[in-house]
Amino acid sequence: MNLAEIALIQFAAGGLELDCAKLPPPSTSDGWHHVQATLVSRLLDGTFPVHHRGVRLRNARIVTSGREPLCLDRLRSDVGLRLKDCLLDCAIWASDARLPWLEVNGCELPELLADRISVAGSVYLRGLRTTTAGSMGTVRLLGADIGHNLELDGSRLHNLGVGPGLHAEGLRVGRAFRFRHGNVSTRCDTGAIQLVNARVEGDLWLDGTVVRNVRGPALNAEGLRVEGSLMLSSGFEARAMSDELATVHLMSASIGARLDLGEGRATTGLSYGRSDDDRTRTHAVLENTGGKHLTLDLKCARVNELRLPDETVCTSDQDWCGVDDKVVLVGLKYNSLSQESMRPNWPHWLSTHAEPFDSEPFQHLATIMRDAGKAGRARKVLIALEEERFRRRYRPSWGTRCWHVIKRVFTGHGYKPGRALAGLLAVVGVAVVFTLIARANGWISRPALLVEGLGGDGDGIACSTGDAIRLAADLSIPLINTSGRLRCDFEHYGLAQQIGTVAGIVLQILGWAFATLFVAGFSGAVRKI
C-alpha cells in the first residue's frame, strides 16, 4: 500500500475526511495520489473498521488494474461513501447495493451504473463530469430507491454512443430531485434524460440545465409523477431532433403543484458552485428540428397550475406566423393558469401549434378562464374553436359559408347572443325613425274605421307620436301586438301605400331574423346547426 491508501484506512477508522492534497507530494508521474478501487470497496464491505461517518476521500485518483470498475454491486453497508474532487479511471457499479448515503461530488469518471440501488438518505452527484460511449447511459439509476434528495447540480453528462445521459426509469425519490445548471449531450433515440414512470415526492428542478440530443427527445418523462413542482425554467434549454417524440415528452405525467416553463422562482437556494446572483431568469427554450417539430407533449397530463409563457411556444396572436413548433395538449388537465399564461395568444396556439387539432383543449381552457373571472377571454377561445372547425372543413358550400358568416357576425357562434339582440333593437330603432318621418310627411294617419272608446274620425287625421311608435313596434318586433295599426296606419293609396307595404315586409323579416338568431344563440342551438 502507498501513503494515501494507508492514510485512508486510518482516517476512515477515525471518522475523518482524507484530503490527499494535504499529504506530501506523490511520486507518481501524473501528480495524483493513487488509491486502488478495491480498497474503497473493502472499506465499505467491512473488511477494515470504518467509523459511522463513513469513507470520505478528496483529491485522489482512484485506479484499477485493467478496466475493472469500482464494484459495489449487491453491497450491504452500514456506512456511506463520499468522494470529492476525485479522478476515477474506472466506472462505479452499484447495482442492488444498500447504502445509508452516497456522495460523488466534483468527480470525473466514465460512468455510474446503479440499477435498483437503495439509499436511505440522500445521493449527491453534484458537479459530476462523465464521458462514455456506452449504450447503458452515463448515469444509470433504473428502479433506484432514494429516501431523501437526489442532486446532480452542475453535472456534465456526455454520451458519445447511443445511450442516454441520465437513465432513471422507475426511479423513486423521497424528497427533492435537483439537476440545476447542468449539461447533457447524447445521441439516444429514447431520450437524453429518461425519467419514464419515475416518482418524486418533492419538487423536481431542471432550472438552467442545457440538454441536447441529436437523435431523439431531450427529456422523456412519460408517466412521471411529481408531488411538488416540475421546474423547467430559469434558462432551461432543450434541443432535440426527434421525428416521433417531442423535445420534452410528458405524456400522462402528474404534477401535484406547478409545471413551470417560465422564469422560475425568485429564490431557489444554493446550487453547486453557483449562487442566486448567477441565475438567468428567462423562459424555457424548446427546439425540435425533427419532421413534426414537436417541442412539448402534455397529452393526458395532470397539472395543478400551468405556467407556459408566450415565448415558449409562439409570441404571435395572428392567424399566421412563421413558427413551425407544435405542442400536444389533448387530454391535458390543469386547475389554474399563472398570470403570465393568461394571455390572448392561446387561441392562436391551439389553432396553429396544437397537434393534433381537438376541441377539448379549447373547452378546458375556456372553463379555466371563466373560473378565473376572464369570461370575455373564455368566449374568445370558444369562438376561435368554431372558426378553426370551419376552417378545417373540406370544401364547404356557399350556403354553408354564408351561414357561418351570419353566425359569426350576429351571434359570435352562440357565445355573444347580445349581438343579435342589439340587431333587433337597431331594427326597432329604424322602424321608430321611419314611422316618425312618415308621420311628418303625412304618409300615416288615423284609419277611417271607428274604434270603440277612441272617438275615431277618419282618414287624413294625423297620428300622435305615441301611435307612430306603437306602429313601429308592431312592424319590427315579432310576437308583439300593441294594436298600433288600429290607431295609426299608412295611407291606403298612392306612394304611401307602396312605401308602407315594402317597409313593413322588410322590417318584419329583419325583426324575425334577429329575434330567431338571439333565441338560437342564447340557447346554444346555433352551434348545432
UniProtKB/TrEMBL annotation:
Alphabetically ordered keywords of this record: Membrane, Transmembrane, Transmembrane helix
Taxonomy, superkingdom: Bacteria
Record field: transmembrane: 505-526
Protein name per Swiss-Prot or TrEMBL: Membrane-associated oxidoreductase
Organism the protein comes from: Lentzea miocenica
Record lineage: Bacteria, Bacillati, Actinomycetota, Actinomycetes, Pseudonocardiales
